[in-house]
Structure formats: structure tokens, C-alpha cells
Design brief:
The complex is a heterotetramer, with two copies of chain A and two copies of chain C.
Chain A lengths: L6 H11 L5 E4 L18 E4 L3 E7 L17 E9 L2 H9 L5 E4 L3 E3 L4 E2 L15 H7 L2 E5 L11 E2 L12 E5 L3 E6 L2 E7 L4 H7 L4 E3 L2
Parallel strand pairs in A: 1-2, 1-5, 5-8, 6-9, 8-10, 12-13
Antiparallel strand pairs in A: 2-3, 3-4, 6-7, 10-11, 11-12
Chain C lengths: L3 E2 L2 H4 L8 E4 L9 H10 L4 E4 L10 H6 L3 E6 L8 H8 L4 E4 L2 H13 L3 E4 L13 E4 L2 E6 L4 E12 L4 E2 L8 H7 E12 L18 E4 L3
Parallel strand pairs in C: 1-12, 2-3, 2-9, 3-4, 4-5, 9-11, 11-12
Antiparallel strand pairs in C: 6-8, 7-8, 9-10
Helix pairs in contact in C: 5-6
The chains are: A alpha/beta, C alpha/beta.
Chain lengths: 213, 213, 220, 220
Amino acid sequence: MNQPLGKDDLARLIAADIPDGAYVNLGIGQPTSIAHYLNPDSGVILHTENGMLGMGEIVAADQADGDLTNAGKQPVTELPGAAYFHHADSFAMMRGGHLDVCVMGAFQVSADGDLANWHTGAADAIPAVGGAMDLAVGAKQVWVMMTLFTKGGEPKLVPSCSYPLTGKACVTRVYTEVATFHITPGGVRVADTYGITFEELAERLDVSLIRTQ
Amino acid sequence: MNQPLGKDDLARLIAADIPDGAYVNLGIGQPTSIAHYLNPDSGVILHTENGMLGMGEIVAADQADGDLTNAGKQPVTELPGAAYFHHADSFAMMRGGHLDVCVMGAFQVSADGDLANWHTGAADAIPAVGGAMDLAVGAKQVWVMMTLFTKGGEPKLVPSCSYPLTGKACVTRVYTEVATFHITPGGVRVADTYGITFEELAERLDVSLIRTQ
Amino acid sequence: MRTRVTDALTAVTEVRDGDTVLVGGFGMAGMPVELIDALIEHGAGDLTIVSNNAGNGDTGLAALLAAGRVRKMVCSFPRQADSWVFDGLYRAGKIELELVPQGDLAERMRAAGAGIGAFYCPTGVGTPIAEGRETRVIDGREYVLAYPIRGDVALIRAHRADRLGNLVYRKTARNFGPVMATAATLTIAQVSEIVEIGELDPENIVTPSIYVDRLVEAPR
Amino acid sequence: MRTRVTDALTAVTEVRDGDTVLVGGFGMAGMPVELIDALIEHGAGDLTIVSNNAGNGDTGLAALLAAGRVRKMVCSFPRQADSWVFDGLYRAGKIELELVPQGDLAERMRAAGAGIGAFYCPTGVGTPIAEGRETRVIDGREYVLAYPIRGDVALIRAHRADRLGNLVYRKTARNFGPVMATAATLTIAQVSEIVEIGELDPENIVTPSIYVDRLVEAPR
């Protein structure tokens, strides 16, 4: 029996699923690590919402250019064929449906593909949304990369999100350490499992699951 | 007594009234000729709606660059400090109220500043509006350059336009061969006359006129 | 998805009868003549063309009109000294005309490309252009509601491209190209020269490659 | 009207108590630190600041907040690892926060600059951001109505300017600068270098001089 995926394995898996030549936005946090596993020959081009296509790798502080950062404000490089644009143009690109894939983290995803990833709803939390809502409505495919369970063991793939939404019915795939889910008009299909059986998964989630034949 | 103005004198007069440093759009047809009389030291910068600030003079066919034209599709030059932009940006500039002055021709202007300059309403005419409606709503000051009377002797400054409108209550000045009118909240003020008395003017127009003290 | 470099005829093979085609250019400046010639050869008809003008002289868009391929023109300024082809078709009742102010034409295509559902525009308030349309007063000013204009295909002309599909334009020939590239399902660009990746300065790209599906080199 | 080249303190003298000030930058990239320092020295207070973030560390926007000059922040992402100044004021109830999604922030300022009265935006539909706002279904998709965000003043940082006020930016420090420049009554730009007229290529100007009222050289 296979094993649950480590964070790097999960990033590698998602990287391999991104189609050649795709224009992709990788959200801040964990999804950023996917870039490291993209095949340079794939022709995948990274978008960063602060105004760039053709973003390269994260660089160390001693190589940092303060004018060149990713959406998480980490210093990055520029690849040949890059292009810079302002924020209205960058978000027109996102909202207008031109990005092939975006990958974001999440607090919760619902069986209908609702996404909650910006606010826990806690009274003392300072809310911050950034570009997540724009990505949620804009990218052709919205993929989520997350752990399937909270530290307390609660499932994060849920019948209905209890946290405030980022976007409705937008998520098409959920990549977790124990399973990959495809959210389809027919329901939630388990595409792969890692170190867990379909039956165990079905028991731990309060969501109807479809088995891949 | 002074004389009615020739076309060149009228263009020279309007050029002199444009404030130093103003950003100006000169409409196709007669207003284009105003550019010729702008003082190079005035710092006036010409906008052309097909995507340029810093437009220079019209040039002869043998010096023409097919990629560089004014809104009337005549070949022009580029001045130092020019900038090119696309049509959505160009019309955002117009509509957003950033141009100080535009000067357009007109079929009719009403006493309230309504402008009619795109369509005679004739059944067999092919309508064409171009950027006139965008300029009418966008420029801080909309000035009209026209003859005061049609070839048939009908006044073109009227109580209410009979031709289809280009814009409502947008014209602030009307420059003609016999008089300059300022359209103000208080009414139509005659700023200057050329070869005609205020009384003669008042008699030939069906519009209440205010005499400049 | 990755931009494909091809010849003009191959580039336009996906145009279908009945398509809405956005055609760049302001008069002949920025007019993608070689792509239009290929479209004529390709044969698609019953087209709706969105372009600022309705053809000049006998080449480019005028030639497409003359070939009888266009059912409807959406434009701001059809009537020109050299628009005899359109004028003849229009007077003979052989072509429909939808007149759209020039700024609306640009902004409505931008809205299509930017995912905006509709917008309130001050242009044309109180004029025949606003008749029958929804209006609203916002902060004391009246606006007309304008909807996006989307293309099945955009045919545009730029100056140079890199092999990824990044485009730069030349002078006022830029005009509608960058906006149309964002507003069509399939964007086909002809350029005078295709250069290697890295030869265009990333600061100066006007149309990023994401908007360009097919790239055709047409030296001039 | 003509762009005036001046020092930072002179540039900000027209900022008034209670003004809405658009402040460029995404984090520190593009943050007009010297202009903000001048604004602190100038002393205007009770400000509404529109900016993507709510200050980083103790300089720039964070210093303005720390000086107690800001009544309200309009931003998309206040909470950051180094936003301690804002966090403290917010938790103490000493500052208002209006959270706007990042793309709405950009597009609403663009609308202000472009003369658009309002627009239907798909962002935030079905989320708390849409609560109490007008929605409309267009072509089967739901949108929320969004209104322009105008500034009395914009403080932005660009890379180089010519003496006319044309601006070019550098890398992702471009971010909100070009949009904010269009959306304010008075736009003040700080640049690393001012060059002679004609030294910037007209094809590459990002912000044309028409949008720039005051120009301040702040070498770095």
C-alpha cells in the first residue's frame, strides 16, 4: 500500500498535472512550492497578480531585487519572455478567464466546489483577501492544495463551508496528502489515494464520493 | 468696425485662447488647423484619440508613415515627449475628464450647450460618430468651431437642436466667423463680435444673448 | 495555451460561418491585411465584423466586404472618403450596420476581455445611441448601461513578436490591437517580424503572450 | 495642465485633512516612501488611505499610520508578517478598515480614471464582500455592482520620468502606480531619475504626462 504524500511530493504531483504551455497562477503559501517541480521544457508560464507573466524562482535575500517580487512579496527572478503590466491589467487577465490554472490553499472546500480560504471568521482575526476572490472567479481551473484534515482531525472537504466563502462553485480539483479529488457536475470523484483506502476516506468525510473505475 | 474672421484667423484666435500647458484634442476637419497656430512655447500637448499624446504637424504624402496618423487618418509627426497607447486607454483618458480642451465642428449648438455634429438625420445618410460622443462627455471644456450660419442663412446656434445630439449640455464656447459665445449657467454671453454688432447678432439668432460689459 | 507560429491560411482555418470577428486597425494603420486576405481565401461567410471603420479603398476589410462575406458591421465610423465598398452594400441593403461610439467600442471589448459583466458609461446620454437602453443616475450624473463585445476570433496586426507571442506595436497602429487580443476566443496576430524569446524588453511588452493564439509573420 | 517638478515637501502641500489619498506599492515594491515621509512632515491628518496593504515594518505607509494620521484604510491585504503597526491600531479600535478584493481595488480606481460610473464584477459573488450590494445576472452569470474609488491625491513611485511627466516603472514595482495616477485629482509621482524630454521612447511610456501633476526626484 502506498503512503500519504509529503509536501514536496504533493507539489511534484500537482506540477506534473499542469498541462504543457499552461498559464498558471500559484497562490501564496504552499502552492508557491509547485514552481520548483515544473519541467523547464513544459512551457508553463507563471503569472503573479502583482503584475508579471514569466516569473522565475524565488531567490535568496542577497540576490533580491526589491522591485521584483511574487504575490507573497518574496524576491523572485524574471525569465526570458517575461512581461510586466499594472494591477488593473493583471486582474483583467485573471477575471477575464485567461489563466488556465490557479492553485490555492484552502481552509475548506465544499462538495460543490465552494472555496473558503481568506477568513476564519474568528472575531479577533484581521481579515485579508488579496487576489483570492479574483482568482476564484477568473481562472479556467481552480485547484486547491491543502491537507485533508485540520490539526484537530476535522475534514476540510465538507458538504458546505462553515467559513466565509472566497468563491462559489469554483474549485475543480482538490489535491491533499491522502487523496486527489475531482469536483465534477456529477459529484466528487476520488482520482487517487495515497496511504488510505477509498472506504476509509468515505468514512472520514461527510461528502458522497465517487470511485474512479 | 472690424471684419468677419477668415478661417485662418478663427483658427489663430482659438489657438491663442488655449491655456499654456493644456492637453487638447482637435476634432477632424476645421479644428485640425488650429494646431498650426499654437505657439511652440505654449507647452500645449495634442491628443489624438487613435492613441497618442504629443502629436505634431500634418505632413505631406512623401513624408508619410502609414503607422502614424491623426484621427482624420492624415499622416502626422511625433513630437519629443510623445506617448502611444491603445484605444481603451485613449478613450479612458477622454471619458475620464483628463483633457483640458477639445475643439470640434458642429451642425448645431443649442443655447444650453447641446451639441449636434455627427448626423444630419437625412434618410439616405450613412451615420458615423467616431469619438465625438466620447469627447463631448469627457473633455473639461468643449469648444465648437463653426460658421454661425448655414449656406442657406439658417443660424446654427439655436434654442434647441433639430439634428440628433452628440452630447447634452457639454459645449462651453462657440467660436464663429462673426462672434465668440460663452455658454454659461446664466445664458449665452457674446464675448466678441467680428464685423457685426451685438444688435444685429441678437436679431439674426433666436437665442437670448448676454452682452459682455 | 502556447502560441502557435503558422502561415496566414492555416491561422484562419478555425474561423466558422457566422462568427464574430474583431478586426484591428484605424483606417489602414494596424489593419491585418494579410490575415484578411487569408480569411477571404479560407471562405468563411455570414460574418459579423467589429472594427472601427468599414473598410478603406479596395484592400483589407474592404476586400472582405466586396467578397460578400460580411452580414453585419459593428463600427464607429463607416462613412469615409474611400469607403465606397461599404457605402454601396449599405445603400443596396446588403449589409447591416450597428453604430457604436468609438470609446464604447474599445471599452466594451475591454470589458469582454476583463470579465466585466456590464458598465455604466456616460457616452451618448441624451442621444439616439442611448435610445431604448437602460440608464442610471450615479452621483448626479446620467450613464447608459453598456455590455461587453466578444469575438470568436480577433485578427490584429502588431509590429514585432517573440516566439512566445508577446507583442509590441508601432506608433498609432497600436490602436485596437491590444484590446481586441483580450476579447476574442481565438486571437490571431500578424507581425512584421518574429524575434527570439528574450529579445523584447519585458518592460515594453504591450500584449502579453497569454492573449495570442496564432502568430503569423508578414514582413513589410 | 503642465507637470511641475518640485521637492517632496512642496509637492504634498496641497493635501488637506480628511483627504482620500491613494498610495502606490505592493508591500514595499513601488511604495513612495519619500513622499509619505513628506506627508508626515506636512501634517495632514484624518486621512483615508487606499493602498493594497496596510503598511510594512516601520517605514513608509506604516510610519504614516504610526503618526496617527489615518482614520481609515481601504485595502485588500492588511494582515502580513510585518504589519504590526496596523494590527495594533486595528485591535485598539483606532483605525477603520474597508476590505476590498485586490482586483476590485484596481478596477474601481481604473473606473474612476476612465469615467465609468459603475461596473458589474463577478468577484466576491456569494461571499461576505457581496453582502448588501446590488447584484445582477447577466448572460447566466451573477455579478456585483462596484463603484469607482477616487482619490483627492495619489502618491506613487515610478522609475524614471521625463520633464513633461511621462513615467516608466521598474519590474513589479509598477503595480498600482499607473492606475492610481488616473484616479486622483492631484497625482504626485516620485522617481529615481528625471531625464530630458525625448529620452524616453514614446512606445514605452506607461503613464503619460497628462496624469502626473507633481514630479519629485528621489534618487536611490
